[in-house]
């Protein structure tokens, strides 16, 4: 799919929720605009209380190339669109072109829909995704642009500062501490994409190769679906260690609407596709609730590959076996429960990261196990 098709290209103006389209005989606004080096892609829905800080930070970017701000307003009922329009002159004085569109339907269409619209109407050769409630530091566009030039097949992220400070402490630490290898090996954890969506930067060519975001609306993890498709195509995630984004935490954030069981199923399916399909058998490290839930979620083929559960809890180990009572198989599947020192790999680790005071990590190191070869985290 070409980013700027010659016919029926969506224009920046929308009326009554419907997109006006141009035929092949007239030049569209996107075609008239000069292509920018970087388009900042911003979906907006009822973000007026955060937009002033967000937009001011864009104006203060130290990037010297050409920039464009592409905003799609997804049925806001506050002053969001008015706030953005109020910044148009200041943006253009700074040399940043502005494209604003949206719809006024009774219900928002969702983050995936709004992002796709903002991308479609933009012109930049590179895309910098920006949430309307976050604040980019002055170096963000420049440093991610320079990295993307060197790594055209990579989805580029960056470190973050959490606001309020100390909120979601474990999650923030995970975002900022993953190694380059772990950006791949920890793609099955419950935290979502290892390069977090509010920090994404990539070429338009890469984005269009992966495909548009899912437009299923509220509850759909469009970022995780895109990230998994990116990995399927051999994409290489990267993260700059510099903390280039102030990542705001609040109860109205779209991430809170994602359905937990939807995320769980996506992760299980991706684990089976990418890891378990390559293994003849394996051990689930955790004989408790999460380990048993993973086992029950597996396909019958992969359930039969589970040679044991292992644990450190003597109460679980003394039971000796786990019987899958709900199974339709006869006899019902029975899986041994072992002490972790008696178990053999490879392992799927179903213990929460950063919750054992370092004991889990010490046990893995003592067994000389390598992440991505001998074990993967699923937690």
Textual characterization of the structure:
With 379 residues, the protein is an alpha/beta fold. The protein folds into two domains: 10-258, Spore Coat Polysaccharide Biosynthesis Protein SpsA, Chain A (Alpha-Beta Complex); 275-377, Rossmann fold. 32% of the residues lie in helices and 24% in strands. The chain is elongated and about 70 Å long. The chain starts with 9 loop residues before the first strand and ends with a strand.
Q: Strand fraction band?
A: 15-25%
In spatial order, strands of the major sheet run 13-14-12-11-15-16
* Fraction in helix: 25-40%
Q: CATH topology of the largest domain, which one?
A: Spore Coat Polysaccharide Biosynthesis Protein SpsA, Chain A
Low-confidence segments? 1-28
Text of the CATH class of the largest domain: Alpha Beta
Task: Compute the separation of the termini in Å.
Answer: 36 Å
Global Rg:
23 Å
Average the pLDDT over all residues and give the rounded result: 90
- The DSSP helix count reads 15
Number of domains: 2
Q: What is the SS-derived class? A: alpha/beta
Question: What's the overall geometry?
Answer: elongated
Give a short account of the largest sheet: 6 strands, mixed
- Assigned CATH superfamily of the largest domain: Spore Coat Polysaccharide Biosynthesis Protein SpsA, Chain A
What is the CATH architecture descriptor of the largest domain? Alpha-Beta Complex
The number of distinct β-strands equals: 16
Biased composition (Basic and acidic residues): 10-34
Domain Glycosyltransferase 2-like: 39-210
GO molecular function, one term: hexosyltransferase activity
Pfam families: Glycos_transf_2
